[in-house]
Amino acid sequence: MKTETQTDLVVRRTIPASAEELFDAWLDPKSLALWMTPMDGMTPATVRNDPRVGGEYEIIMHAPGHDYPHRGNYRVIDRPRRLAFTWLSDATGDRETVVTVEFVPRGAKTEVVLTHAGLDDDAQTKHTQGWSGVLEKLEKFV
Fold first, then answer.
1. H-helix or E-strand containing 36?
2. How many structural domains is the chain composed of?
3. Domain assignment present for 27
4. What's the pTM value of the predicted model, to 2 decimals?
5. N- to C-terminal Cα separation, the chain
């Protein structure tokens, strides 16, 4: 019997924007719709969120011929330092995983450190590409 391992995925990117700007971009549904699209060719996402601890969110990413729904709830909202939320999607096997985003000031820039916990090996590969693309688009957005 194959045993799946779970490891934490960590993606970092230093972005020329303040921690406040970046933090707020994660909670504003209009903003999220524009940059929470990791692949080229995706149209703006459909976003519904209730940005408070315990509040739920849903992000539906739209690619040609396929939609990618994601959902969860907020566990930590500590502006402008840290966000944590659960993350469920087809790519996680509809299992609850946890994403933590930390915003670390670096002079006029901010290092965004995203940790996605509880992913199996297959999901980690998919999410490494996805989160890297998301942070790249976030940088272009701000």
1. none
2. 1
3. yes
4. 0.92
5. 47
